[in-house]
Write a structure and sequence with these properties.
There is one protein chain. By secondary structure, the protein is an alpha+beta fold. The chain has a single domain, classed as 2-Layer Sandwich (Nonspecific Lipid-transfer Protein, Chain A), CATH 3.30.1050. The chain is built from five helices and five strands; from the N terminus they run H-H-E-E-E-E-H-H-E-H. A five-stranded mixed sheet has the order 3-2-1-4-5. Helix 1 packs across helix 5 and helix 3 packs across helix 4. It holds the Pfam family SCP2. This is SCP2 domain-containing protein.
Length: 112
């Protein structure tokens, strides 16, 4: 089942973060997610001090992830296994602290 990327980042993830702020703060990092292609966009996710997810790219994220909308579908289904495959295939680009990318699964698990 395809995930609606716009709905995920604009509605579902912000609601999940506000409902699970303490759990989100344990991740303790800022992420910039850039999804290219149809249905994509740019979102800034803060799990450090002010827990929130919002559209835009203010800069200064600890971990920046760039991925196509098509590949994001695979990544979202299984961030651990598919994330590694996409990364090594050059389809998932990570700048900044690459270890933080592994914590994205925890972020998505809060929602599930």
């Amino acid at each position: 089942m395809a995930v609606d990327i716009q709905k995920l980042f604009n509605e579902e993830l912000p609601a999940t973060l506000s409902n699970n702020a303490d759990a989100a703060k344990q991740i303790g990092a800022t992420f910039q997610i850039n999804v290219t292609g149809d249905g994509g966009g740019e979102w800034f996710i803060n799990t450090k001090d002010e827990v929130k997810a919002e559209a835009g790219n203010p800069g200064g994220a600890d971990c920046v992830i760039t991925i196509s909308a098509e590949d994001f579908q695979k990544f979202y289904e299984n961030p651990g296994a598919n994330g590694m495959q996409l990364f090594f295939a050059g389809k998932l680009k990570i700048t900044g602290n690459q270890m933080l990318a592994m914590k994205l699964q925890k972020l998505f698990d809060l929602k599930k």
